[in-house]
Amino acid sequence: MTAFNDTFPILKTVKKNFGAPEIVTTKVDEALFFKKDSSECMLIVLRKLQAYDFIFGSARMVRCIKQNKNWKFEISMTFDFDKDYFKLYKENNFENISKLARYSALTEGDIKSEGCEIDDDYWFVYLKK
Asked: SS3 of 83, please?
């Protein structure tokens, strides 16, 4: 997480990655989802729009690949959360967007019946293709 926090200011200068700062506020979520062998992980960048007429918020997934002792970061898929779609989450604050993003990460791919594990094959193999 420390390595990403150092790199994030550079990555977010590319507007297509995380949106224009005058329209979108971003925050790195505290959740990390590791591959079983810990050679890769996924983290979440939460995005809150200033005016949210249609989109409640979104989350951009970032793939982290360990190369030697350093981490390499690749921008991955985005989850968009429509306004008024989730009755439990009326306010588009980072706490609510985080809950939706974590749920999306845990349920994407082949859902496990027990535990809080992400699908290694989906996140670390399928999406690389």
From this structure: coil
Residues 32, 46: Cα–Cα separation, whole Å: 13
Can you say whether residue 46 is alpha, beta or left, with left for phi > 0 and alpha for psi between -120 and 50 degrees? beta
Q: In angstroms, rounded to a whole number, what is the distance separating the alpha carbons of residues 60 and 79? A: 6
User: Residue 54 CA to chain centroid, in angstroms?
Assistant: 20
Distance CA 63, CA 44 (A): 9
Structure tokens at 39: 């050679």
Q: Distance between CA 1 and CA 39 in Å, rounded?
A: 14
Average pLDDT over residues 64-68: 92
Q: Is the Cα dihedral 102, 17, 5, 74 positive or negative?
A: positive
Q: pTM for the complete prediction? A: 0.82
Query: Quick check: helix, strand or coil at residue 5?
Result: helix
The encoded tokens of residue 34 equal 């590791």
Euclidean distance between CA atoms 65 and 47, whole angstroms: 23
